[in-house]
């Protein structure tokens, strides 16, 4: 017997029983983003490796350890996208979307990182996000955060906290970088090997360490907020005022630096304590220099990304029900003539009641077997068509999920009867 082929570790199938929750979440995201005037951008999952090295930064875990990178037959280095911001910028530059114009876009799709799989963290994972270009003021920062806040309310998610910080301008951050390096050198004996390596190349990432042995040193480190340039401070103060006016609560986290090199000024994360160590469900910020860094003309940028698996886990953790995608109606057909008539009836109902999900029995089977299939399908009603119904020109409607009474209606009156029935139509 041939060996059974398994999926790649950390890359999972999304099974039919799970897909209803995915479709509910993705549909909610699409509707909400569109309501705010954002338009969808779809980018390839495979990009030139240089794109991520130049955008994310050479001295990051993603580039150093996690990217799926290979040489194709032409010798070109290609990488499965580990995130989508760089791809959106590349697409914007390549297709002339960014120069001298504002853009509000959104995306959704799979990303790839070769890291240790754990609950809520996979090697192929799904993200949705929004990106904005050419809007320099804090008003767009506030809008982007408001979009994410509204998503939690729409989904019914509670107990999430908005953490906020500012990284200042590139110039202010470079000055702070020297101060931080000097401080870290004074405590080098406490730093782990990863922190020592990053201390001179990407010292802000040291502040993001989860090593408990370094917690006191990190807590006592100089704060970037104390080294902001005047323009960044004014930008941050205005953002906080706008969030206050909109009633969006937040916590200032001076240690929030984000994991990618391209961020500046506003950075934020939505976090929860209900998912263990994988507590961040949405994160983003401003990246005003990235477009120019990737070869475009100077253009401001801002966005966020959210992990769909983690949001689904949170919906499950908080016992938030999602709409089922079971059929509304299962058509049971007993007899050869009924099977022919039943399939025709199914198509007629789909034409006249397109909001309903209708499943027809296939492969015949006894009446008892068909009713078991109807019940297993999750349908709310069974429409039964047999020899008796055919001879009398009627169908039998049998409730499967409620205490309603079984009844018979004429074939001609079926659409009207179903229209009166309280289906959700989703």
TrEMBL record:
Q: Could you list the residue ranges that cross the membrane? A: none
> Which family does the similarity line name?
Belongs to the class-II aminoacyl-tRNA synthetase family.
- Which HAMAP family does this UniProt record tie to the protein? His_tRNA_synth
Entry's Gene Ontology BP terms: histidyl-tRNA aminoacylation
UniProt KW Cytoplasm keyword: yes
The record's annotation in NCBIfam families points to: hisS
Cellular component aspect of the GO annotation: cytoplasm
Provide the top EC class: ligase
Start and end residues of each Aminoacyl-transfer RNA synthetases class-II family profile domain: 1-327
Cross-referenced InterPro entries: aa-tRNA-synth_II, aa-tRNA-synth_II/BPL/LPL, Anticodon-bd, Anticodon-bd_dom_sf, His-tRNA-ligase, HisRS-like_core, HisRS/HisZ, HisRS_anticodon
- Subunit-level organization: Homodimer.
Task: State the protein's name.
Answer: Histidine--tRNA ligase
Give EC number(s), comma-separated: 6.1.1.21
Q: Which reaction does it catalyse?
A: tRNA(His) + L-histidine + ATP = L-histidyl-tRNA(His) + AMP + diphosphate + H(+)
Return the Gene3D superfamilies for the record: Anticodon-binding domain (3.40.50.800), Bira Bifunctional Protein, Domain 2 (3.30.930.10)
Q: Where in the cell is it found?
A: Cytoplasm
Keyword terms of this UniProt record: Aminoacyl-tRNA synthetase, ATP-binding, Cytoplasm, Ligase, Nucleotide-binding, Protein biosynthesis
* Binding of L-histidine, residues: 83-85, 113, 127, 131, 258, 262-263
Where does this protein come from, organism-wise? Leucothrix pacifica
Listed GO MF terms: ATP binding; histidine-tRNA ligase activity
């Amino acid at each position: 017997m041939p060996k059974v082929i398994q999926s790649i570790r950390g890359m999972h199938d999304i099974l039919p029983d799970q897909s209803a929750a995915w479709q509910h979440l993705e549909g909610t995201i699409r509707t909400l983003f569109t309501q705010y005037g954002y338009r969808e951008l779809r980018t390839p999952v495979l990009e030139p490796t240089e794109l991520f090295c130049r955008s994310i930064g050479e001295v990051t875990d993603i580039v150093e350890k996690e990217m799926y990178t290979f040489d194709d037959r032409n010798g070109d280095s290609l990488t499965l996208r580990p995130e989508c911001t760089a791809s959106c910028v590349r697409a914007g530059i390549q297709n002339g979307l960014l120069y001298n114009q504002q853009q509000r876009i959104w995306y959704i799709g799979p990303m790839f990182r070769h890291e240790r799989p754990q609950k809520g963290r996979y090697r192929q994972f799904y993200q949705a996000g929004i990106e904005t270009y050419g809007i320099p003021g804090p008003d767009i920062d506030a809008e982007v955060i408001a979009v994410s806040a509204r998503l939690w309310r729409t989904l019914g998610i509670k107990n999430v906290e908005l953490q906020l910080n500012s990284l200042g301008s590139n110039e202010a951050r470079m000055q702070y970088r020297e101060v931080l390096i000097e401080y870290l050198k004074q405590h080098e004996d406490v730093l782990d090997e990863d922190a020592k390596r990053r201390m001179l190349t990407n010292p802000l990432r040291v502040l993001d360490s989860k090593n408990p042995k370094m917690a006191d040193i990190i807590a006592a480190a100089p704060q970037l907020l104390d080294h902001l340039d005047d323009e960044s401070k004014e930008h941050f103060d205005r953002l906080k005022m706008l969030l206050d006016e909109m009633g969006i609560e937040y916590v200032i986290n001076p240690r929030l630096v984000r994991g990618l090199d391209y961020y500046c000024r506003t950075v934020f994360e939505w976090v929860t304590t209900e998912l263990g160590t994988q507590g961040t469900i949405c994160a983003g910020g401003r990246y005003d220099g990235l477009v120019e860094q990737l070869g475009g003309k100077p253009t401001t940028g801002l966005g966020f990304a959210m992990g769909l698996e983690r949001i689904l886990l949170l919906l499950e953790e908080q016992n938030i029900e999602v709409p089922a995608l079971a059929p509304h109606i299962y058509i049971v057909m007993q007899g050869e003539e009924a099977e022919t008539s039943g399939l025709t009836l199914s198509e007629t109902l789909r034409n006249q009641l397109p909001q309903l999900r209708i499943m027809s029995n296939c492969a015949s089977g006894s009446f008892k077997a068909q009713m078991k299939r109807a019940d297993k399908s999750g349908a709310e009603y069974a429409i039964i068509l047999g020899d008796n119904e055919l001879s009398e020109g009627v169908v039998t409607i049998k409730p499967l999920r409620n205490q309603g009474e079984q009844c018979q209606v004429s074939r001609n009156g079926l659409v009207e009867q179903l229209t009166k029935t309280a289906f959700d139509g989703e």
